[in-house]
Amino acid sequence: MAHTLRGTGRWKNITFEELEEFVRRAREAGVRDDEEVTALTSGSGKIKELEVELPD
């Protein structure tokens, strides 16, 4: 089973600060630059949730 890193917005949608924190945590966990990120967006296109697979 693959381990993932998931980020969600504190209130409703992810802020720029929360996006930056997600990227920082992913890099610290060893996620490669070419790894794809899955995003759940709202109907208006705002990011609600991010997920990336962590390396073994």
Distance between the termini: 10 Å
Count the domains.
1
> What letter string, H or E per element, gives the SSE order?
EHEE
Fraction of helical residues = 10-25%
> What is the gyration radius calculated from CA atoms?
11 Å
Overall 3D form: globular
- The overall pLDDT, averaged over residues, is 94
Class derived from helix and strand content: alpha+beta
Strand-residue proportion: 25-35%
Major beta sheet, strand line-up: 1-3-2
Profile the largest sheet. 3 strands, antiparallel
* Count of strand segments: 3
Number of helices: 1
The poorly predicted ranges are: none
Briefly say what this structure is.
The protein has one helix spanning 16-28; strands spanning 4-8, 38-41, 47-53. 23% of the residues lie in helices and 29% in strands.
What does this structure look like?
The longest helix has 13 residues, at 16-28. It is built from one helix and three strands, in the order E-H-E-E. The chain has 56 residues and is an alpha+beta fold. It has one helix spanning 16-28, and strands at residues 4-8, 38-41, 47-53. The protein has a three-stranded antiparallel β-sheet, with helices on one face. The radius of gyration is 11 Å and the shape is globular.
List keywords for this structure.
three-stranded antiparallel sheet; 23% helix; 1 helix; 56 residues
